[in-house]
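[job 4471] stage=fold_predict status=RUNNING
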Amino acid sequence: MKLVLALLSLLALAACNTMNSGSPMAQPVAQQSSDSDVRNRARVHTELGYAYYEAKRMNQALDEARVSIGIDGGYALAYNLLGLVYMDLRENAAAENSFQQALQLAPGDPDISNNYGWFLCQTRREVQSLNYFQTAAKNPLYSSPAVALTNAAMCAEKIGDTKSADETLSRAVLVDPTNPRVLFLAADMAYQRGRFGEAKRRLSDLNRVAPLSAETVWLGLRIARKQADRNEEARYVALMRQRFSESAEFKKLSQGQYE
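[job 4471] inference complete, writing structure tokens
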């Protein structure tokens, strides 16, 4: 909510600047900077839309994306936002069109490439999605290549390409060794492969950088069970009862559903 309010303040400031530029004294400056003013207004509306998107307020996010495009029809990130919102709303045709327009305006943009790759993965085009994840991950300006690599690993796993999934996820860990999502997936994937020692190490790394959750405790419990480490298993069982007794994982424990 604070982010939304801050962006609304920026939007008001941008509007004031535009109004002030209408005075005779300001006209020469306004003419020189009109393009940047338009882009700035579109950017603020798009950022506000992203804040609404993160808050799961999809109608408002959609409205802000449309306003941004109305201001600046060449702003790729506004189309990217449209794609994300439509994807969340399961309007796949509109999502695809929006992502493609975004990529036409900004070919190779890593955020857009990653998002479109995820859309393709979720619409059963996993093989095609991998190219977009790799494009994002290879971009030296991308601030979070581990995200794209992790998404690529998950999509490779979906189509049964375990070798590619393992290799790509290992790259993600090297790129961002303290990323909780990456470490959890690495631990879980190692567990699924029967590499319980590796799974335990990955989980230990995760527990050093992130708070315990029902998901991580449940994974630790099952690793200990596979390794016949009864003391460790009992410790995790106690944690589940004490801290996560309302979770779906605790229900599985109560029913003896370990897999």
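[job 4471] summary: The chain has 14 helices and no strands.
[job 4471] exit 0
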